[in-house]
Amino acid sequence: MFAPCERGEGSVSCGFEGFTLLMPAVSVGNVGQLAIDLVISTLNMTKVGYFYTDCLVPMVGNNPYATAEENSMELSINAEVYSLPSKKLVVLQIRSPFIKNKYRPFCQTLLSWVKSSKCARVILLSSSHAYQRDDEQLLGTPLRYLVTPDLEKAVGGLMQELNWKEMEKVAAYPGINNTEKVLHIPGGGITKLLFTESCSKGIQMAVLLKFCSEGDNIPDAFALVNYLNEWLQLIKGEVSAVPYTSSQWKIPSSWRLLFGNGLPPALF
């Protein structure tokens, strides 16, 4: 459950009524988590607490968004909460994988917190294995969305205006019975479970995801966060889909050695 930071007098308020909760699924390529990194770093969001749970592998590390030596030694754990009241945005960043058979308890705890904190809606950033797409999913953009019935009433028209593609359902028994369709998100981690639970509990949730493969998934993260920005307009003006080239998204310090030291300039 949520545990606020102990900041003493003048601490940041942890009231989230009417806020949008943005969070990642631990999914293929860690694309959602990388996209969340870009949001937190770019908007300079304030850490307001932690999400205490035994459903995630324990971990601790240095501040991933350090901007100076003074704050580089601050510690971070596996699930932390950041807030930006001016945009009514709260972000839950997850940094470690789930413990086996702990998906459902985590979803139940999370959705209970969403209701108790009175968040207006939840947006889940996720990904799915590109190689497991069916023929219909191979067409057009690799980006997809899902919305629960309760959120569909509020934003369904906007999704149509943005010309977004809804995640297609696939045959439950390919080659045997192609008429029965089911939602299938291979490599999506908690995505399907969290979405279906939100549908049944009347919670307003949207899933934004990208088909991708494991590797250097930084370009996928930029594509997904730009997709999110089309809707929420977190940053204004033109944004580049190509990493490191005139992008307005701020690269967090923790990405510096994400894929090693890189090639020496002399080789270029």
Automatic annotation (TrEMBL):
Please cite one Gene Ontology biological process associated with this protein. proteasome assembly
Family matches, as InterPro entries: Proteasome_assmbl_chaperone_2 (IPR019151), Proteasome_assmbl_chp_2_euk (IPR016562), PSMG2_sf (IPR038389)
Source taxon at top rank: Eukaryota
**Which Pfam families does the UniProt entry name for this protein?**
PAC2 (PF09754)
| UniProt KW keywords | Chaperone, Nucleus, Phosphoprotein
Function text: Chaperone protein which promotes assembly of the 20S proteasome as part of a heterodimer with PSMG1. The PSMG1-PSMG2 heterodimer binds to the PSMA5 and PSMA7 proteasome subunits, promotes assembly of the proteasome alpha subunits into the heteroheptameric alpha ring and prevents alpha ring dimerization.
Subunit structure comment from the entry: Forms a heterodimer with PSMG1. The PSMG1-PSMG2 heterodimer interacts directly with the PSMA5 and PSMA7 proteasome alpha subunits.
Give the family per the record: Belongs to the PSMG2 family.
Output this protein's name: Proteasome assembly chaperone 2
Provide the taxonomic classification: Eukaryota, Metazoa, Chordata, Craniata, Vertebrata
